[in-house]
Amino acid sequence: MTILHKSFVAAALVAAGAMAFSGPGLAQTETASEVTSVYKPSVGQSGKDVVWVPTSQALVDRMLDMAELTPRDHLVDLGSGDGRLVITAAKRGASARGIEFNPDLVALSRRTAQAEGVGNRARFDQGDIFKSDFSNATVVTLFLLPDLNLRLRPTLLNMKPGTRVVSNTFTMDDWEPDETAQVTQGCAGHCTAYKWVIPAKVQGTWRMGDKQLVLTQKYQMVEGTLREEGASTPISEGRIAGTKITFVAGDQRYTGEISGRTMQGTTEGGGRWNATLMKP
To answer: What is the DSSP letter of 261?
Structure first.
C-alpha cells in the first residue's frame, strides 16, 4: 500500500513519513527493532518505476473500515510495501495477501507479520501486480498512480460483483467512487481514500413479464427504458451496488438482486418482479 511514481518524491518526502503500526506490541521471537534492523526502508527509495511512500496507519484503518472488512474476507493489497495494511487486515481476522515487487520489502513484511503474531493469516508474494492472479480477493486495496489504476481497471471490473476496491489518494478516471473519505488526524499527507464496489453486468435486453427492460450500463450507473405495448418509459436513478440494482420507471421504484442472467425483486408498492436476460 505504498507506491508512488518518482515524480511525486519531493512532495511525498515532506508529506509522509513512516508511521508505526498501531495495536498490540510485538510478540513471538523478535522485537520491532530487531525486525527493522535487518532491513529498514527509507521513504522515497526507488523501486520499479516508482518510489516507496508508506500509507499512514490512520488511513490504513479508515480504508479497512470503508471496505467493511470481516474475518470472512480475503484481502489483496497491490504494492504492499512494508506490509502494514495486510498485517492490519490480518489482525482484524481476515486472510490477507500482499503483492510487492521489492524482495527486501517482502522479506521485511513476512518477518513483521510473524513478529506481530499474524504470520498464519498474512501472506506476502514477490511479483508484478500486472502478472499476478488476485481474482479470489473480496477486497482489493492499492496506492498507485492514476495511469496504473487505469491499467488495472479492466481486471477489477471483471472481478466478482460485490468485491470492494479501496484506493489511497488516486481515482479511476471517469469511474466515480461509491464512497470518499478523508482522514484529518494521524495523517500528514495522502489522506483521502476512495471506494468502489464491483458492479454486476446488466447491459442488454431483459424480459420482465410482458415487458422489455432495455439497459445500458457505465460502471455502476444504469440508464434505459421499460417497454410495454408500444409505450416506452425511460428509467432514472439507475444504480448497481454489487449484485443489487435500483431504478425508477414511471411512478414505481424497483429494487432487485442480480444473479447472472436473472434478476428478481420488489417494487416500492410491494409487488414482485423478475427479469431474464434475452440479449446482452
So the answer is: T
